[in-house]
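This part of the workshop introduces the protein records we will be handling. To make this concrete, we reproduce a full record directly below:
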Amino acid sequence: MRVMCTVSAWPTHYFPLVPMCWALQSAGHDVHVLCAPSQSKTVSRAGLTPVPVLGELEIPFLARLRNVWDAQAGRWPYSWMPPHPVTGEPMKKLTDFGFGEFARASREKMADPVERSGAAAVEYARSWRPDLVLFEPLALEGLLAARVIGVPAVLHLWGPVGTHETDPEVRGVAEYPTNSFARYGVGEISLSTVDYVLDPCPIDLQPPVDATRLPIRYLPYNGPGGQPTWALEEPERPRVSIVWGNSLTAMLGPESFAVPLVVEALADLPVEIVAMAGNRDVASVRGGDKVRVLEQFPLHLLLPTCSAVVHHGGAGCMMTAIAAGVPQLAIPAAMDQPTNAARLVASGAGLRIPRPVASPETVRAAVLELLESGEYRDDAARLRAQLMDRPTPAQVVADLEKIAG
Protein backbone atom coordinates (compact mmCIF):
# COMPACT_ATOMS: atom_id res chain seq x y z
CA MET A 1 0.00 0.00 0.00
CA ARG A 2 0.95 3.64 -0.31
CA VAL A 3 1.39 5.57 2.93
CA MET A 4 1.61 9.36 2.97
CA CYS A 5 3.04 11.03 6.07
CA THR A 6 2.90 14.69 7.00
CA VAL A 7 5.39 16.15 9.47
CA SER A 8 6.05 19.56 10.98
CA ALA A 9 9.11 21.78 10.56
CA TRP A 10 10.62 20.66 13.88
CA PRO A 11 12.44 17.28 13.77
CA THR A 12 11.82 16.20 17.36
CA HIS A 13 8.10 16.35 16.68
CA TYR A 14 8.24 13.70 13.98
CA PHE A 15 11.17 11.58 15.17
CA PRO A 16 8.78 9.24 17.09
CA LEU A 17 7.12 8.46 13.74
CA VAL A 18 10.35 7.34 12.05
CA PRO A 19 10.45 3.72 13.37
CA MET A 20 6.84 3.22 12.20
CA CYS A 21 7.85 4.40 8.73
CA TRP A 22 10.83 2.03 8.77
CA ALA A 23 8.53 -0.86 9.65
CA LEU A 24 6.14 -0.01 6.83
CA GLN A 25 8.99 0.16 4.33
CA SER A 26 10.43 -3.12 5.58
CA ALA A 27 7.02 -4.72 5.04
CA GLY A 28 7.12 -3.65 1.39
CA HIS A 29 4.93 -0.55 1.54
CA ASP A 30 5.72 2.77 -0.17
CA VAL A 31 6.19 5.64 2.29
CA HIS A 32 6.38 9.28 1.22
CA VAL A 33 6.99 11.98 3.83
CA LEU A 34 5.53 15.41 3.05
CA CYS A 35 7.62 18.03 4.80
CA ALA A 36 8.79 21.62 4.63
CA PRO A 37 11.89 22.21 2.46
CA SER A 38 13.92 22.82 5.63
CA GLN A 39 13.27 19.21 6.70
CA SER A 40 14.15 17.47 3.46
CA LYS A 41 17.72 16.62 4.50
CA THR A 42 16.70 15.49 7.99
CA VAL A 43 14.01 13.19 6.57
CA SER A 44 16.49 11.78 4.04
CA ARG A 45 19.06 11.12 6.77
CA ALA A 46 16.43 9.01 8.53
CA GLY A 47 16.27 6.76 5.46
CA LEU A 48 12.90 8.06 4.31
CA THR A 49 11.66 9.70 1.11
CA PRO A 50 10.98 13.43 1.56
CA VAL A 51 8.45 15.36 -0.48
CA PRO A 52 9.36 18.99 0.41
CA VAL A 53 6.10 20.75 -0.48
CA LEU A 54 4.68 21.94 2.86
CA GLY A 55 4.82 25.47 4.25
CA GLU A 56 7.52 26.54 6.69
CA LEU A 57 5.47 26.89 9.87
CA GLU A 58 7.93 28.43 12.36
CA ILE A 59 7.47 26.66 15.69
CA PRO A 60 9.64 29.13 17.69
CA PHE A 61 7.49 32.01 16.40
CA LEU A 62 4.32 30.31 17.64
CA ALA A 63 5.88 29.77 21.06
CA ARG A 64 7.21 33.32 21.30
CA LEU A 65 3.82 34.70 20.28
CA ARG A 66 2.16 32.72 23.04
CA ASN A 67 4.76 33.95 25.51
CA VAL A 68 3.90 37.56 24.72
CA TRP A 69 0.20 36.82 25.21
CA ASP A 70 1.00 35.20 28.56
CA ALA A 71 3.10 38.19 29.59
CA GLN A 72 0.32 40.59 28.66
CA ALA A 73 -2.07 38.50 30.77
CA GLY A 74 0.36 38.42 33.72
CA ARG A 75 1.21 34.72 33.26
CA TRP A 76 4.87 35.09 32.19
CA PRO A 77 6.77 33.39 35.07
CA TYR A 78 10.29 34.64 34.37
CA SER A 79 12.22 37.68 35.58
CA TRP A 80 13.29 38.62 32.04
CA MET A 81 11.13 39.89 29.19
CA PRO A 82 10.00 37.37 26.55
CA PRO A 83 11.78 37.43 23.19
CA HIS A 84 10.22 39.35 20.32
CA PRO A 85 7.97 36.93 18.39
CA VAL A 86 9.46 37.84 15.00
CA THR A 87 13.12 38.63 15.67
CA GLY A 88 13.73 36.48 18.74
CA GLU A 89 15.63 39.36 20.34
CA PRO A 90 14.86 40.30 23.98
CA MET A 91 12.01 42.81 24.25
CA LYS A 92 12.45 45.93 26.37
CA LYS A 93 8.70 46.34 26.85
CA LEU A 94 5.60 44.42 25.76
CA THR A 95 4.47 47.23 23.48
CA ASP A 96 7.50 46.54 21.28
CA PHE A 97 5.18 44.07 19.52
CA GLY A 98 2.02 45.89 18.49
CA PHE A 99 -1.23 44.76 16.91
CA GLY A 100 -0.20 45.76 13.39
CA GLU A 101 2.95 43.68 13.55
CA PHE A 102 1.00 40.83 15.15
CA ALA A 103 -1.52 40.78 12.28
CA ARG A 104 1.20 40.88 9.61
CA ALA A 105 3.47 38.33 11.28
CA SER A 106 0.61 35.95 12.05
CA ARG A 107 -0.41 35.98 8.41
CA GLU A 108 3.15 35.50 7.10
CA LYS A 109 4.41 33.00 9.65
CA MET A 110 1.29 31.06 10.63
CA ALA A 111 -1.78 31.46 8.42
CA ASP A 112 0.03 31.47 5.05
CA PRO A 113 2.25 28.42 5.79
CA VAL A 114 -0.75 26.47 7.13
CA GLU A 115 -2.77 27.35 4.02
CA ARG A 116 0.10 26.35 1.72
CA SER A 117 0.57 23.08 3.60
CA GLY A 118 -3.08 22.20 3.32
CA ALA A 119 -3.21 22.92 -0.40
CA ALA A 120 0.04 21.02 -1.06
CA ALA A 121 -1.03 17.97 0.96
CA VAL A 122 -4.40 17.79 -0.78
CA GLU A 123 -2.85 18.19 -4.23
CA TYR A 124 -0.24 15.51 -3.57
CA ALA A 125 -2.82 13.12 -2.12
CA ARG A 126 -5.07 13.56 -5.15
CA SER A 127 -2.15 12.83 -7.45
CA TRP A 128 -0.40 10.00 -5.58
CA ARG A 129 -3.58 8.42 -4.14
CA PRO A 130 -2.26 6.98 -0.84
CA ASP A 131 -4.17 4.20 0.90
CA LEU A 132 -3.38 5.57 4.35
CA VAL A 133 -2.14 8.83 5.89
CA LEU A 134 0.07 9.08 8.99
CA PHE A 135 0.64 12.41 10.68
CA GLU A 136 1.98 13.92 13.89
CA PRO A 137 0.14 16.47 16.06
CA LEU A 138 1.61 19.56 14.40
CA ALA A 139 0.95 18.36 10.84
CA LEU A 140 -2.84 18.41 10.59
CA GLU A 141 -2.73 18.86 6.81
CA GLY A 142 -2.36 15.07 6.73
CA LEU A 143 -5.77 14.66 8.34
CA LEU A 144 -7.19 17.20 5.89
CA ALA A 145 -5.80 15.39 2.84
CA ALA A 146 -7.11 12.04 4.07
CA ARG A 147 -10.61 13.49 4.54
CA VAL A 148 -10.58 15.10 1.09
CA ILE A 149 -9.67 11.90 -0.78
CA GLY A 150 -11.58 9.59 1.55
CA VAL A 151 -8.86 7.41 3.10
CA PRO A 152 -8.12 6.64 6.78
CA ALA A 153 -5.75 8.84 8.76
CA VAL A 154 -3.76 7.80 11.84
CA LEU A 155 -2.20 10.20 14.32
CA HIS A 156 1.11 9.28 15.99
CA LEU A 157 1.48 11.01 19.39
CA TRP A 158 4.77 12.43 20.67
CA GLY A 159 4.29 11.24 24.24
CA PRO A 160 2.09 11.81 27.30
CA VAL A 161 -0.09 14.61 25.84
CA GLY A 162 -3.20 13.29 24.12
CA THR A 163 -5.92 14.44 21.75
CA HIS A 164 -8.55 15.30 24.35
CA GLU A 165 -6.80 17.41 26.98
CA THR A 166 -9.10 19.51 29.16
CA ASP A 167 -6.49 22.16 29.97
CA PRO A 168 -6.67 24.82 27.22
CA GLU A 169 -2.99 25.67 27.76
CA VAL A 170 -2.07 22.10 26.84
CA ARG A 171 -4.67 21.74 24.10
CA GLY A 172 -3.37 24.85 22.35
CA VAL A 173 0.15 23.49 21.94
CA ALA A 174 -0.64 21.62 18.73
CA GLU A 175 -3.69 23.42 17.36
CA TYR A 176 -3.84 25.21 14.03
CA PRO A 177 -5.87 28.43 13.82
CA THR A 178 -9.60 27.75 13.91
CA ASN A 179 -11.19 27.12 10.49
CA SER A 180 -7.81 26.92 8.75
CA PHE A 181 -9.21 24.37 6.31
CA ALA A 182 -12.88 25.36 6.24
CA ARG A 183 -12.88 25.94 2.47
CA TYR A 184 -12.42 22.23 1.80
CA GLY A 185 -15.84 21.39 3.26
CA VAL A 186 -14.78 18.23 5.12
CA GLY A 187 -15.72 19.31 8.63
CA GLU A 188 -13.55 20.21 11.57
CA ILE A 189 -9.86 19.39 11.22
CA SER A 190 -8.40 19.15 14.71
CA LEU A 191 -6.85 16.61 17.08
CA SER A 192 -10.26 16.05 18.66
CA THR A 193 -11.67 14.71 15.38
CA VAL A 194 -9.12 11.96 14.66
CA ASP A 195 -10.33 8.37 14.39
CA TYR A 196 -7.12 6.43 15.10
CA VAL A 197 -4.26 7.24 17.45
CA LEU A 198 -0.91 5.49 17.77
CA ASP A 199 -0.08 5.81 21.47
CA PRO A 200 3.57 5.09 22.39
CA CYS A 201 3.19 5.60 26.15
CA PRO A 202 3.37 2.90 28.84
CA ILE A 203 0.06 2.21 30.54
CA ASP A 204 0.81 4.38 33.56
CA LEU A 205 1.41 7.38 31.29
CA GLN A 206 -1.42 6.89 28.81
CA PRO A 207 -2.80 10.29 27.74
CA PRO A 208 -6.50 11.14 27.26
CA VAL A 209 -7.66 9.91 23.85
CA ASP A 210 -11.23 9.67 22.51
CA ALA A 211 -10.50 7.58 19.44
CA THR A 212 -9.42 4.06 18.57
CA ARG A 213 -6.17 3.75 20.50
CA LEU A 214 -3.46 1.65 18.87
CA PRO A 215 -0.73 0.78 21.39
CA ILE A 216 2.79 0.91 19.97
CA ARG A 217 6.20 0.54 21.56
CA TYR A 218 8.23 3.72 21.65
CA LEU A 219 11.50 3.03 19.85
CA PRO A 220 13.88 5.94 20.40
CA TYR A 221 15.18 7.75 17.34
CA ASN A 222 16.95 11.02 18.11
CA GLY A 223 18.65 11.51 14.78
CA PRO A 224 21.70 9.81 13.23
CA GLY A 225 25.03 9.55 14.96
CA GLY A 226 27.90 7.22 15.79
CA GLN A 227 28.30 5.21 18.98
CA PRO A 228 31.42 6.32 20.93
CA THR A 229 33.29 3.47 22.56
CA TRP A 230 33.60 5.29 25.90
CA ALA A 231 29.81 5.24 26.24
CA LEU A 232 29.86 1.43 26.20
CA GLU A 233 32.30 1.19 29.09
CA GLU A 234 31.04 0.90 32.66
CA PRO A 235 31.45 4.37 34.22
CA GLU A 236 33.57 4.56 37.36
CA ARG A 237 31.00 6.85 38.97
CA PRO A 238 27.25 7.19 38.43
CA ARG A 239 26.74 8.90 35.08
CA VAL A 240 24.26 11.77 35.01
CA SER A 241 23.26 13.26 31.67
CA ILE A 242 21.95 16.78 31.18
CA VAL A 243 19.79 17.44 28.12
CA TRP A 244 18.31 20.73 27.03
CA GLY A 245 16.08 21.17 23.99
CA ASN A 246 17.39 22.99 20.93
CA SER A 247 14.30 25.16 20.71
CA LEU A 248 14.05 26.56 24.21
CA THR A 249 16.60 29.33 23.89
CA ALA A 250 14.89 30.50 20.70
CA MET A 251 11.49 30.37 22.41
CA LEU A 252 12.27 31.78 25.85
CA GLY A 253 15.52 33.68 25.51
CA PRO A 254 19.14 32.85 26.42
CA GLU A 255 18.47 33.24 30.14
CA SER A 256 16.32 30.12 30.04
CA PHE A 257 19.27 27.85 29.18
CA ALA A 258 19.56 25.74 32.32
CA VAL A 259 22.56 23.50 31.60
CA PRO A 260 25.09 25.79 33.36
CA LEU A 261 22.80 25.85 36.41
CA VAL A 262 22.60 22.04 36.48
CA VAL A 263 26.36 21.68 35.98
CA GLU A 264 26.90 23.98 38.95
CA ALA A 265 24.48 21.88 41.00
CA LEU A 266 26.31 18.63 40.25
CA ALA A 267 29.91 19.87 40.19
CA ASP A 268 30.81 18.71 43.70
CA LEU A 269 28.94 15.38 43.58
CA PRO A 270 30.77 12.09 42.97
CA VAL A 271 29.19 11.66 39.54
CA GLU A 272 30.24 11.71 35.90
CA ILE A 273 28.49 14.59 34.11
CA VAL A 274 27.61 14.44 30.41
CA ALA A 275 25.94 17.56 29.04
CA MET A 276 24.14 17.53 25.68
CA ALA A 277 23.04 20.70 23.92
CA GLY A 278 22.32 22.09 20.49
CA ASN A 279 24.90 23.93 18.42
CA ARG A 280 23.51 27.31 19.50
CA ASP A 281 23.97 26.60 23.20
CA VAL A 282 26.90 24.23 23.49
CA ALA A 283 29.51 27.02 23.64
CA SER A 284 28.00 28.33 26.87
CA VAL A 285 28.47 25.03 28.74
CA ARG A 286 31.39 25.16 31.14
CA GLY A 287 32.77 22.70 33.67
CA GLY A 288 36.28 21.85 32.59
CA ASP A 289 37.41 18.27 33.06
CA LYS A 290 34.36 17.47 35.18
CA VAL A 291 31.93 17.74 32.27
CA ARG A 292 31.89 15.91 28.95
CA VAL A 293 30.00 18.07 26.43
CA LEU A 294 28.25 16.52 23.42
CA GLU A 295 26.78 18.53 20.58
CA GLN A 296 23.72 17.26 18.66
CA PHE A 297 24.25 13.74 20.03
CA PRO A 298 21.60 10.99 19.70
CA LEU A 299 20.26 10.60 23.22
CA HIS A 300 19.33 6.94 22.87
CA LEU A 301 23.00 6.00 22.47
CA LEU A 302 23.91 7.35 25.91
CA LEU A 303 20.97 7.03 28.30
CA PRO A 304 21.16 3.23 28.86
CA THR A 305 24.51 3.84 30.62
CA CYS A 306 23.19 6.62 32.89
CA SER A 307 21.98 6.49 36.48
CA ALA A 308 19.85 9.63 36.08
CA VAL A 309 18.96 12.24 33.48
CA VAL A 310 18.08 15.91 33.92
CA HIS A 311 16.10 17.47 31.06
CA HIS A 312 13.58 20.13 30.08
CA GLY A 313 10.50 17.93 30.12
CA GLY A 314 10.19 17.47 26.36
CA ALA A 315 8.38 14.36 25.19
CA GLY A 316 11.35 13.03 23.22
CA CYS A 317 13.75 13.18 26.20
CA MET A 318 11.16 11.75 28.55
CA MET A 319 10.16 8.85 26.33
CA THR A 320 13.78 8.00 25.47
CA ALA A 321 14.60 7.92 29.19
CA ILE A 322 11.60 5.66 29.83
CA ALA A 323 12.81 3.28 27.13
CA ALA A 324 16.21 3.20 28.87
CA GLY A 325 14.69 2.70 32.34
CA VAL A 326 16.44 5.76 33.79
CA PRO A 327 15.10 7.95 36.65
CA GLN A 328 14.45 11.52 35.50
CA LEU A 329 14.47 15.07 36.81
CA ALA A 330 12.36 17.32 34.59
CA ILE A 331 12.81 21.09 34.67
CA PRO A 332 9.82 22.10 32.51
CA ALA A 333 10.00 25.52 30.92
CA ALA A 334 7.11 25.95 28.45
CA MET A 335 4.54 24.45 26.07
CA ASP A 336 3.57 20.83 26.90
CA GLN A 337 6.55 20.30 29.21
CA PRO A 338 4.74 21.03 32.52
CA THR A 339 2.10 18.42 31.67
CA ASN A 340 4.72 15.87 30.66
CA ALA A 341 6.59 16.47 33.91
CA ALA A 342 3.47 16.23 36.06
CA ARG A 343 2.55 12.89 34.54
CA LEU A 344 6.11 11.62 34.96
CA VAL A 345 6.00 12.49 38.68
CA ALA A 346 2.61 10.78 39.02
CA SER A 347 4.15 7.59 37.62
CA GLY A 348 6.81 7.60 40.35
CA ALA A 349 9.73 7.46 37.89
CA GLY A 350 11.01 10.97 38.42
CA LEU A 351 10.88 14.43 39.95
CA ARG A 352 10.22 17.93 38.61
CA ILE A 353 11.31 21.47 39.38
CA PRO A 354 9.66 24.20 37.27
CA ARG A 355 12.29 26.23 35.42
CA PRO A 356 11.30 29.58 37.02
CA VAL A 357 12.15 28.27 40.51
CA ALA A 358 15.02 25.92 39.69
CA SER A 359 18.27 26.66 41.54
CA PRO A 360 21.56 24.82 42.02
CA GLU A 361 20.43 23.84 45.52
CA THR A 362 17.05 22.39 44.50
CA VAL A 363 18.51 20.58 41.48
CA ARG A 364 21.35 19.10 43.56
CA ALA A 365 18.92 17.79 46.17
CA ALA A 366 16.63 16.28 43.54
CA VAL A 367 19.44 14.48 41.70
CA LEU A 368 20.77 13.10 44.99
CA GLU A 369 17.30 11.79 45.77
CA LEU A 370 17.07 10.07 42.38
CA LEU A 371 20.48 8.45 42.86
CA GLU A 372 20.03 7.37 46.46
CA SER A 373 16.44 6.13 46.47
CA GLY A 374 15.79 2.75 44.91
CA GLU A 375 12.10 3.60 44.46
CA TYR A 376 12.75 5.81 41.43
CA ARG A 377 14.87 3.11 39.80
CA ASP A 378 12.17 0.53 40.48
CA ASP A 379 9.43 2.73 39.00
CA ALA A 380 11.60 3.60 35.99
CA ALA A 381 12.15 -0.13 35.43
CA ARG A 382 8.40 -0.72 35.73
CA LEU A 383 7.64 1.90 33.07
CA ARG A 384 10.26 0.40 30.78
CA ALA A 385 8.73 -3.07 31.23
CA GLN A 386 5.31 -1.67 30.35
CA LEU A 387 6.82 -0.10 27.25
CA MET A 388 8.43 -3.38 26.21
CA ASP A 389 5.04 -5.11 26.50
CA ARG A 390 3.57 -2.90 23.77
CA PRO A 391 3.56 -4.08 20.12
CA THR A 392 6.59 -3.12 18.07
CA PRO A 393 6.10 -0.98 14.95
CA ALA A 394 6.64 -4.12 12.88
CA GLN A 395 3.69 -5.75 14.68
CA VAL A 396 1.54 -2.64 14.24
CA VAL A 397 1.93 -2.77 10.44
CA ALA A 398 -0.79 -5.41 10.30
CA ASP A 399 -3.19 -3.11 12.19
CA LEU A 400 -2.52 -0.29 9.75
CA GLU A 401 -3.06 -2.64 6.80
CA LYS A 402 -6.49 -3.55 8.19
CA ILE A 403 -7.38 0.11 8.73
CA ALA A 404 -6.40 0.89 5.14
CA GLY A 405 -8.66 -1.92 4.03
About this structure: The CA atoms of residues 154 and 256 lie 35 Å apart. The chain has a mean pLDDT of 92. The first strand starts at residue 2 and ends at 6.
